[in-house]
Amino acid sequence: AAFGEESGEYASMLGELGAYYRGQRRLQEAEGCCVKALDLLERSAGRVSAACATARNNLAGVHRLMGRYEQAEEEFLDCLDLYRRTVGERDILYAGGLNNYSLLCLDRRDYDKALALQAQAAEILRDLPVCRDELASSLGNQGMLLQFLGRLPEAEERLTQAVRMYETELGTDTPHYHAVLDGLGAVYLQAGDHRRAIEQFEKAAGAAEALYGPRHPEYLAIRQRLEGARRAAEREEGTT
Q1: pLDDT for 40-56, tens place per residue?
Q2: pLDDT value, residue 8
């Protein structure tokens, strides 16, 4: 009513609605909103704009979830090019675009490329003092991927950095905190260091219980891993 259905403001709200539908896995509706938002922004703000880059990023995210990987990759690359030409390569928007593209690479099992994109995003975020939350999340993601790849010393380093950031400056009342503790426990378990694995799983379980309560699936899953680590430690003690 205030701006009309051809305005940039209306397009932005369509983008928000598309994000809501995406979170609900109502992907056809999400795609419709994102396509319309992109069209409106291209006409109102011009194709070479940060707003259009973000709209294209949102649309790529929907297509990724729909399994339309080639289309999503083309849109992510176009988004990064638009961010490069508008806000530059040292901006949080560009880092976010890199991280989203890395998720597509994970879906396609291109793990080395996903890791390289996440590392590139983290290097940008290190130089942005207001992006400490995003940096900690990025370090956690890198650590878990490195653990999956079997690169355990590097995984431990990234996850330990993330844990330290949450404990000293960001706060521990966030799901990301127990996630990185859980990831660090998995690293130690894979390395055969059962004592340290148990320590991290215990901390992760405590943090998850404080956040969600004792019946939440996240807490129960960590408890399972904790019990598995304790059994592994007992077996090791029984053979020595």
Answers
A1: 989 887 889 999 999 99
A2: 74
Q: Taking the model in full, what pTM does it have? A: 0.81
Structure tokens at 205: 């379980």
Cα 199 off chain centre by: 25
219/240 Cα distance (integer angstroms): 32
* Alpha helices in the chain, H assignment, sequence order: 8-23, 27-44, 50-65, 69-86, 92-107, 111-126, 132-148, 152-165, 175-190, 194-212, 217-238
Burial of 166 (0-12, 13-18, 19+ CB in 10 A): buried
pLDDT the model gives residue 240: 60
- Give the pLDDT score at 47: 84
Amino acid at site 108: R
Distances (CA, A) of 68 to 20, 56, 111: 20, 14, 18
**Residue bearing tokens 């004792």:** 214
pLDDT single digits (tens) 54-105: 999 999 999 999 999 999 999 999 999 999 999 999 999 999 999 999 999 9
Which tokens hold the place of 29?
């509706």
The residues, ordered by sequence, that sit 6+ positions from 173 with a Cβ below 8 Å of its Cβ are 210, 211
Helix (H, G, I), strand (E, B) or coil at 109: coil
Spatial distance between the Cα atoms of 142 and 119, rounded to a whole number of angstroms: 7
Q: Is 1 helix (H, G, I), strand (E, B) or coil?
A: coil
CA gap 199, 233 in Å, rounded: 12
Q: How far apart are CA 10 and CA 162, in angstroms?
A: 38
Quick one: tokens of 111?
A: 């793990």
**Rounded Cα gap, residues 73 and 140, in angstroms:** 24
- CA atoms of 149 and 139, how far apart (whole Å): 15
